[in-house]
Amino acid sequence: MHKNADLDALASAYYLSRIFGGADLAADSLDRFSKYMVKKFGINVKFDADENSYDEIIVVDTASREQLGKFRDFRIDAVYDHHASNDILADVRVVKPSYPSCSEMLYDIFGKVENEIAYVLLMGGIITDTRWFRHANGGTFRIVSRLIEDSGIEYGKIAEIFDFPYVQSEKVAILKGMQRLKFRTKGRKIVAYTIVGAHESSVATLLSSIADAIFVASARGDEVRITGRSREINLLEVYHDVSVAFGCKYGGHKNAAGMTCIGDPEAVLNALAIECEKRL
Q1: Fewer beta carbons within 10 Å, N or C terminal of the chain?
Q2: Closest CA to 159 of 120, 200, 189, 211
Q3: What confidence tens digit (pLDDT) does each residue in 48-86 have?
Q4: Is 225 exposed, middle or buried (0-12, 13-18, 19+ CB in 10 A)?
Q5: Which CATH superfamily is domain 7-161 in?
Q6: Rounded to whole angstroms, what are the CA distances from 224 to 192, 195, 268?
Q7: CA neighbor of 101 nearest in space, from 231, 24, 10
Q8: Is residue 25 within 8 Å of 44, Cβ to Cβ?
């Protein structure tokens, strides 16, 4: 799984481990939602591993080797992903960007599994990656319907499990992000950007309900991490143009994507805002 693995990555990995008869799950790190589910269901995730101990290494929901963190140099035998920007080479390579989440793609391929936890996680992966179905398509709803029928789990129970409240640190990050917020307008369109110390995704998701495009940056030494959300702009195109100047690596979807660069956060954010203005 990619570093800071989200629920879609965790669900995909756990589901395949059940389909293939048991396997170790590994990630450089987990996001807070995945940590919660790992603890809730007692799932074992390795944060260190020896590639020579495994006959096959499968990567899920990951667009590039860079996103694998400490596992980036491991051999990869198979990759299952739904990101259009995926550039990972493997003997088995299943990449289908038409699916809003990796969870639904895998369930559409492999089908039923005799494991309730897998069903719950798959639903969580779909819910979080589509932002509660805001980015879903017709296929998403058909697959969710199959999941409910196959698992026998009522949707109300699933919704209750994944209705995560903001924790205190997230609330502080959101408020600081709003304090530092800058924006540009073009007609009735708004491009906004800000800098926080953590929880970039939570800040970006909240502010995306207001701005047509939002970029949230955080700095780790010389490295700048950007989380972006947009309504109509293709973020992958924007990231591609900006990456030339800042030597960035990026991945994700056209409306929700991330980027890692070397440089000054303000400079990167300004460049992103300018590129977005050209496209509005």
Answers
A1: C
A2: 120
A3: 989 888 999 999 999 889 889 899 999 999 999 999 889
A4: middle
A5: inorganic pyrophosphatase (n-terminal core) (3.90.1640.10)
A6: 17, 10, 8
A7: 10
A8: yes
Name the DSSP letter for residue 133. Answer: T
Quick check: 88 and 81 in contact, CB under 8 A? Answer: yes
pLDDT at 163 over 90: no
Amino acid (one-letter) located at 272? L
Residue ranges with strand state E in the chain = 25-26, 45-46, 58-60, 78-81, 92-95, 182-186, 189-195, 213-220, 223-230, 249-252, 256-262
Residue pair 226/259 in contact by the 8 Å Cβ criterion: yes
Q: Does an H or E element contain 20, and which?
A: none
Q: How many CA atoms lie within 13 A of 62 on its CB side?
A: 28
pTM of the model: 0.77
> Residue 209 carries which side chain, given as an amino acid letter?
S
Q: Residue 265 to residues 35, 160, 218, 250, 268: CA-CA distances in angstroms? A: 28, 37, 7, 15, 5
Q: Where are the domains of the chain?
A: 7-161, 168-279
Own/partner pairs, 237-245, CB within 8 angstroms, 24+ separation: 237/279, 238/272, 238/275, 238/276, 238/279, 239/272, 241/275, 242/268, 242/271, 242/272, 242/275, 245/271
